[in-house]
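Thread: quick sanity check before group meeting

JM: Hey all, I'm pulling together slides for Thursday and realized we never actually wrote out the predicted structure for the chain we discussed last week. Dropping the sequence here so it's in one place. If anyone has concerns about the input, flag it before I start.
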Amino acid sequence: MSTTLDPAQRVVITGVGLTSPNGDTLAEFRKNLLEGRSGVEDYDIRYIGKTHAGVCHFDPLKYQKKKMLRVGTRAGSVAIYCAQEAVRDAGLDLDQVDRHRVGVYLGVTEHGNVETENEVYELSKYNYDTKYWSHHHNPRTVANNPAGEVTISLGIPGPHYTIGAACAAGNAGLIQGLQMLRLGEVDVALSGGISEAIHTFGIFASFKAQGALAVHADPTKASRPFDKARNGIVVSEGGAVYVLETLARAKARGARILAEIVGYHMNSDALDFVLPHPERQGECMRRALERARLNPEDVDIVNTHATATPRGDVQECEAIRGIWKDDPSVYVNNTKSYIGHAMGAAGALELAGNLPSFEDGVVHPTINVDELDPECALAGLVLNQPREVGKVDVILNNSFGMLGINSAVVVRRFVG
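JM (edit): ok, ran it. Output follows.
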């Protein structure tokens, strides 16, 4: 499809900005993925106590004043850092574009829980007298906050909103940006996903009550998708924002092109609040490939959503097996084994970790697999050590979420 579309309809990636538990630039992130370095650490949170989490260590003061940090949110800081880094990475001079035609579309799993929990906790110190409730609470908790904070930071008067798509939200942000570009609504889209999940005790408490919170003596080994001894999710924060442009515009300004987005699909299981459905997941992947006008055998890397829950990993492997059978030439990996589950940022961050494969021809592995679960044994699964494959042309990125929301994004090596 990519070679037959009008250049005004082809959408390319020209910049990436990210923060993750094991890296605050794409180069650092990629290096740690290839070296097998986890970013998960021991973590303490109110009412839960000791657990594990993926914690980001970026410097928020790089792009924000202390006053704005006090007024804003952690999600906003993550979004601002990633967006500013993406614009910088793309070599995009916002003074040379019509800022009214720059859109900001960020996926989130949820937003506002952190701020509300903190306010209630502070209020408890004053016998719940609401005169001590912060007047900043409303702008902090509106759903569009993270994207809105980006527009304030970058001085963008164009459209902005967040996309609530559970843990498929990172992909959903990319899809939204692509669609708005193809509709001609914007000239540049800042798209991706962000998460501040580790700062709300509620998410830990809920996963713990569900029996889905990972426990391990070594935090760096707590996130272990596909391993027979996996026992749950490691909650993480993070973000990844992409600069998306039409091919015509990117070429006109002489931009470096990292990849082209050629296919996508989103659908719903329509069955259960939390349990995934492999048939619907498989349908999502197939339709993304159909939109890209690609066959399953054209795919080089499938990045899995697998969160290290006992049933979830098996269900996704069943969906993948239904498409690629036992084809060892389609490499399958997972990024959550390094950073945990970054919720709304997961899909965007995981795609970023695989993008450099177009240049170096290496597939990063899934780590922490000491004993592979036979039900997760896929022919092309890359485990514990990177795989040099020579050339990578197509990556399919899976991202699924609660309430049965599924997403798949297909990117390919740019071909002019």
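AS: nice. The mean pLDDT is 96. Residues 46 and 280 are 38 Å apart (CA to CA).
JM: adding both to the slides.
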